[in-house]
Structures are given as C-alpha cells and as structure tokens.
Design goal:
The chain is α/β, with parallel strands linked by helices. It is built from 21 helices and 18 strands.
Length: 556
C-alpha cells in the first residue's frame, strides 16, 4: 500500500498505529462509534475515512453526550460502546459517561488523544495524566506509548470491558504514536470468559429453595443477555418465586408476569419493602444491593442480614463488600442462569406469597385521579398501553422519573435506558444511541427541563442523522428533585433550584424538529400520534407546576 497519505509512518509498507487501531475495532465487531473531533487524534479520523463502509462515526455536539450515546449502545448490545474524545477539556467532559458506565456495569471503551510522547510531563497544551485521572474511576485506564502494542492493549481492553463485572476502559494514545508504524496485525475478536457456579453450589441452592417458605428473587446489574433473562423467568416460574429487580433494571423481568412484584428503586413501595424484610431467603443475581436498591441500606441488616442470602455476582470483590452472604457465588449472570436451569422444583407453590406481592404491585401502578388539567401519570399510562413491547424508554434524572419508573411496564429485555448513577443529561443522548442501534423500534425519551438542557444541543445530532426519537419534556421550571429534598430537609427555605427556561417548542423547531406544547391530559394522545407521524425528531412539552410535582411525586 502506498503510504504517501500517512506522512508520519516509519516504513513504506507498514500500516500506521491509527489504521491498525481501527482495524482492531472492526475485527472486534465494532461498527459504530461516537466522537467530538480533536486534533489529538487526527490520524485515527483519517484512518476511519478509508473504512466508512464498515465503521460509522457519529459526530456529537458535546463529549458528555458522546460518551452517553456510546454507553447506551453498550447497554443495548452487550458489546463495548466506543467513543473518541480529545485531550484535556474533551476527556473531562467525557468523564460523566465513564462514571455512568462504571456504576451501571456497562462495557465501554473511550479513546483519548494525548499530547506527543516528547511533550509528556511538561504540562503541554491540554495535557492530563489519564492513568492517574481515571485510575480509580474506570475499570482500567492505560496509555499506549508504543504503536506496536496497539493490537495487544486494545484487545485486552475489550476483554476487561466485557468480562467479570462489565465496565469502562479508558485508553490514552499520544498523537504521534497514532502516526507511527505498527508492524503487528489487528487483534482477533475478543472472547468472553466462562464463570459458572460449582455443582456443589447449585446443589446447596436447590436445598435452600426447597426449604424456603418466603423466597424472593432479585435481579440486577449488567452482563445480561436475552437467553439469561428468559432462563431466570422460567426459573422463577418453576420454583414459584416472586421476582423483583434492582434500581433501573426493570426490563430484566416482564413486568406483566404474575411472578413480578415490582422494583427496588427510589420511592420503593411499602408493601415490597415489607416483603423483602419478611422474606426468609433472598436470591440476588447480578444485583450489587447498593443504597438505591436497599432503601439506603435499611432493608437488610449489616453485615449479616436476618434473611438467608444467596448473592451471585460476577465480581468476587463485590461479594461481602457490605453484606455477608450465606452463599457467595462468583459467576456471570448468564453462566449462573444456565447452570441452575436443571434444579428440580420443590413441593412448595407459594401461591399466596406471590399473589400478595403481585396485588400490591398492581395497586402501585394504577394512577389515582388528581383532578389536574395535565397528569403525568396518565401520560405514562397511555404510553404503556399504546407502545409496542419492544419500545425503548430512556430517561435521565429528576422528579419526573418517578412517574416513568412507577407507571410504565417494561415487557421486553433491553427496553429501559436509565442511569443507575443518577446522571442528569443522560436520557436524550441515550435515546439517540438507541435509535442508531435499533432504527426499527420506537424510542421515547422522558426528560425534565433541567435534564434536557444539559444535552439539548444534540437535537442537531438527531436531525443530522435523521433519528426520529420522541422527547416527552416535563417542564416544571425547577431542579425539581433537589427542590423536593429541600422541602423535606429545610421546609420553606428553597434556594437555587428555580429555573428560567427557553421556549422549548421554538427551540426544537429551530433545530428542525417537530414540537408542540401539551397542556391537557386528553390532548396528549393526538399530539403523540402527530409527533410519530412527522417522521422527525420530536419534542412534546408538558408544563407542570413545581408544587404539584413536589407534593404528588411517586418517589416520596
């Protein structure tokens, strides 16, 4: 190959580090990435120019959005999402998406352009030590200082991102290293490690289930696939187990299934909290049992729960971190689901135990009349009754999310995109990522006014790539979640939470999107149909009084 177009190469017939990097990504099965371009990785962008038929690069308007889009694709596909950002400010903006991937156990690889080798350690323009910056922030952070090692280290990054507890990897590459010759071929596709429970552990679990009168299955975390989700649903049916899920993991079990009893999220239903406390056996699979899923670590005694606890998690370091389990099983959720498929059911049917939990959940998701002109709960109820089972619902953080998590029913795997990290500004970029992965599926983003304005510039991205996601914008002119906490902690002393907002309908139309204001519940259905029929990115603004949101919020 004539290397005249790559003047930084060391040998006429050797590919550059940038070219081998891109080839390795393609070999790994990656065909989609997100970026905000930067001069620190121009060679990588040039290498992508030659493979546009195999590798699609989505250009975003902010690095936080780019990493959130990549994180969402990692959630949906189980393959590492890919993102490229430039040094210094670019990488700092990207950190929010990296943090979300860490807390949400999402496979993600972020490539950061670095200053040239000869400038390292001089605090050169936009220089940052990324290994130090992300050493405790990502699952692995590394810098490649030798182009020959690009295939090796990128291959290792894929293995780290997907195996054990999935998570983010940050790879910094000096700009001149990308131009150097790389004598090694691209690495072959990564492999997934098998981590299954022992036969003895499976036998012991069988005995515990058979002896239990009030067991409860808890699913959560990352690393799931469609087969594992189906297997755990069959497992719950076979052994007569009520099933619940961790915070923002509601698509791990069909919410309409009679064994489903709700989610252990913020604003947990009192009946479900009591069910956890009165259970005699908790089987937590993939779920970390963090503060959001344990009501601030109050549902279970620390360090030894009153209930027998079987804790299954792919990371041995997670087991015993807070709770001492009667059985601690280091296994991936997929390998565990397969290993327990042949456990024989015991004699107990537990019909009353399951029915009571299910009845409480059905009561929870039935909105009560409010008498308000616009009722967000009824809007969510309309969407759950109208959207197909495979529709993807995305959201960020704020009071409005309480309505989505309480009143929407997730019926299929990988239909919920919501940050367990509680990050604002996540929902809209995640919805864009989802539409790129699944262009044939409806994608609806719920956002608050504060949440949306952290990523509203990505309307330009949605328009550029013709991605007809629909945003339901709940506008209460406030950082409502913080306002709610202020009202509880410091009554009558709200401060720094009121917002002055733009005309959201005009803003969306300025980008070229479809938009309209909805101020009555009965008008939402027709507005949603018009938004869908437009075939364009769309925004439906719902204006809600902040006092109503605070007093009636389902999270309270």
């Amino acid at each position: 190959m004539n290397m005249a177009h790559h003047p930084g190469t060391d040998a006429a017939n050797t590919r550059t580090g940038a070219q081998v990097l891109v080839d390795t990504l393609i070999e790994a099965g990656s065909n989609l990435a997100f970026c905000v371009p930067g001069e620190s990785y121009l060679a990588a962008l040039d290498a992508m120019h030659d493979v546009q038929d195999k590798f699609r690069m989505i250009v975003c308007r902010h690095e936080a959005s780019a990493t959130n889009m990549a994180e969402a694709t990692g959630k949906l596909t189980g393959r590492p999402g890919i993102c490229f950002v430039t040094r210094g400010p670019g990488s700092s903006h990207a950190s929010i998406g990296i943090h979300t991937a860490q807390q949400d156990s999402t496979p993600l690889i972020v490539f950061v352009g670095q200053v040239s080798i000869g400038d390292l350690g001089r605090e050169a323009f936009q220089e940052v030590d990324y290994v130090q910056m992300y050493g405790k922030f990502a699952k692995w952070a590394v810098q490649i200082d030798d182009a020959a090692r690009i295939p090796e280290i990128v291959s290792h990054a894929f293995h780290v991102a997907v195996n054990g507890r999935p998570g983010p990897v940050v790879i910094a590459i000096p700009e001149d290293v990308l131009k150097h010759a790389c004598p090694n071929p691209p690495a072959p596709r990564y492999t997934r490690a098998v981590a299954a429970p022992s036969r003895a552990a499976v036998a012991e679990l069988e005995s515990l289930i058979a002896a239990s009168e009030r067991p409860l299955l808890i699913l959560g975390g990352g690393g799931w696939n469609a087969d594992a989700v189906k297997q755990m649903q069959v497992f719950a049916e076979k052994h007569h187990l009520p099933a619940t899920v961790g915070f923002r993991c509601q698509d791990l079990f069909d919410n309409t299934h009679p064994n489903y009893v709700g989610d252990l999220g913020l604003g947990i239903d009192a009946a479900l909290a009591e069910m956890v406390k009165s259970s005699d056996l908790l089987i937590a699979v993939g779920e970390r049992l963090g503060d959001a899923s344990t009501k601030g670590y109050t549902l279970l005694d620390i360090p030894t729960p009153a209930q027998k606890l079987v804790h299954v998690h792919p990371s041995p370091e997670e087991l015993g971190m807070v709770y001492r389990a009667d059985m601690a099983i280091a296994a991936t959720v997929a390998d565990f689901a397969e290993a327990v498929a042949d456990i024989k059911p015991g004699p107990r049917t537990r019909e009353k135990w399951i029915a009571e939990g299910r009845a409480a959940y059905d009561r929870k998701i039935t909105p009560k009349p409010t008498g308000l002109p616009l009722d967000v709960a009824q809007v969510v109820k309309y969407l759950r009754e109208t959207l197909p089972d495979n529709a993807i619902i995305a959201n960020g953080a704020g009071t409005y999310t309480g309505y989505v998590h309480r009143y929407y029913t997730f019926r299929s795997f990988k239909t919920q995109l919501a940050p367990t990290s509680g990050a604002m500004g996540y929902g809209f970029p995640a919805a864009i990522g989802a539409k790129l992965v699944h262009p044939d599926r409806p994608v609806v983003c719920f956002a608050g006014d504060g949440c949306f304005l952290m990523a509203s510039q990505e309307l330009a991205t949605a328009i550029r790539y013709d991605l007809p996601v629909i945003v339901v914008l709940v506008n209460n002119s406030s950082y409502g979640s913080i306002r709610m906490h202020q009202e509880r902690e410091y009554p009558g002393r709200t401060f720094a939470t009121n917002l002055n907002n733009p005309d959201f309908v005009a803003l969306a139309k300025a980008y070229g999107a479809y938009a309209e204001l909805v101020d009555k519940t009965e008008d939402f259905a027709a507005a949603f149909e018009r938004a869908t029929a437009s075939g364009k990115p769309a925004l439906l603004e719902l204006q809600i009084d902040i006092e109503v949101m605070v007093k009636a919020n389902p999270r309270k």
